[in-house]
Amino acid sequence: MKVTFNEVQDVLENYKSAVYDTNVERFLAAYAPEMHIYDCWSSFESKGISPMKANVEEWFNGLRADGISLIVDFNDLAVEENLNLAFVYCAVTFAAHDIESGEKLRQITNRFTFGLRKENDSWLIIHQHSSLPIHVETGMGLFDSAKIPS
């Protein structure tokens, strides 16, 4: 699927809508073929589009099987860009809703960094890193940013 992302914000909007629609091809259209991901889920690291596609298919199939729509919001967004490179830093909230009732079931917030490169006048994600804050005493990931000790 060939899509042109003229602005960095277009990549983020595509991410949100592709997740909501569970559209694997549209989701992957924002990633460079040689992309590299450090993730706090699944395999923890992914290089190249093929392993990423398998992870995204599993994720989206699970959402559909569970009758869940996932609403993505980018918070505390900072974008640094020049002509050919951009970095995005943000907190990403994934809110799961029951498709039939619309009831919000749960949500988590991850910290994300995206590295993007402009190729043929289109922005593509070449690196993505997601993480969770870790509670110092327990070593457990903190899924609710409201409960992060200050």
Automatic annotation (TrEMBL):
Gene3D superfamilies: 3.10.450.50. Pfam families: SnoaL_3. InterPro entries: NTF2-like_dom_sf, SnoaL-like. Residues 8-134 form the SnoaL-like domain. SUPFAM superfamilies: NTF2-like. This is Nuclear transport factor 2 family protein. It comes from Paenibacillus hexagrammi. The lineage of its organism: Bacteria, Bacillati, Bacillota, Bacilli, Bacillales.
